[in-house]
Amino acid sequence: MNGSLQQGADKAALVECRDAARTFGRGETAVVAVHGATFRVRTGDRIAITGPSGSGKSTLLHLLAGLELPTSGAVSWPALAGPREIGLVFQGPSLIPALNVVENTALPLVLAGVPEERVRLTALAALAMVGAADLADRLPEELSGGQSQRVAVARVVAIAPRLILADEPTGQLDRAIGQRVLDVLVTAADETGAALVVTTHDPSVAERLPVRRAMHDGRLLDPAEERS
């Protein structure tokens, strides 16, 4: 199948793009951020989408998450029940300053209507999974960049998503800390059974994932194009 990001035909397709494109603006000022992209992400996939800044990686990830709607083509989520089954990790700071770490981690659970007696226990378990349980009572301003990203991963893990999308999660970290954050992401995906898609411009991050696809000028390249 053209452009398929799959690791076995027996796995459920969690998200599928069919010639999906996204344009911002109109007329002469229009910018095509993503040209027609056709591929799918299946249960258990571990995928890196590589490319320089401005190549369309973030927009593609937003299409996968449903945060952006395609200007043309289609994006569907055949095996997902809804947005609660997708977890997003952003590149920049995403924690709410007024909430401590456990409250930030618990927020998606509260918004989803999880019973109060389960919320804190689930949040603490997620923090423990990413090695951040000792940070539970700290405020975001008291955390390092690497600690903040681990908490952001814990917030995603807490909702037990079937698909984790991470947009340049190591982009603002030094290489050693970035590799530790990636360790946490891969371990979290392994332990929850989630598929994982990571956008990155860092080859050392991309090589950690078995499936790698490149973007250039808004186009998701076919494997043959990537090798040329």
From TrEMBL:
Domain of life: Bacteria
Annotated GO MF terms: ATP binding; ATP hydrolysis activity; transmembrane transporter activity
Gene3D superfamilies: P-loop containing nucleotide triphosphate hydrolases
Record-level GO cellular component terms: plasma membrane
Residues of the ABC transporter domain: 15-228
A Pfam cross-reference name: ABC_tran
Keywords for this protein: ATP-binding, Nucleotide-binding
Name of the protein in its database record: ATP-binding cassette domain-containing protein
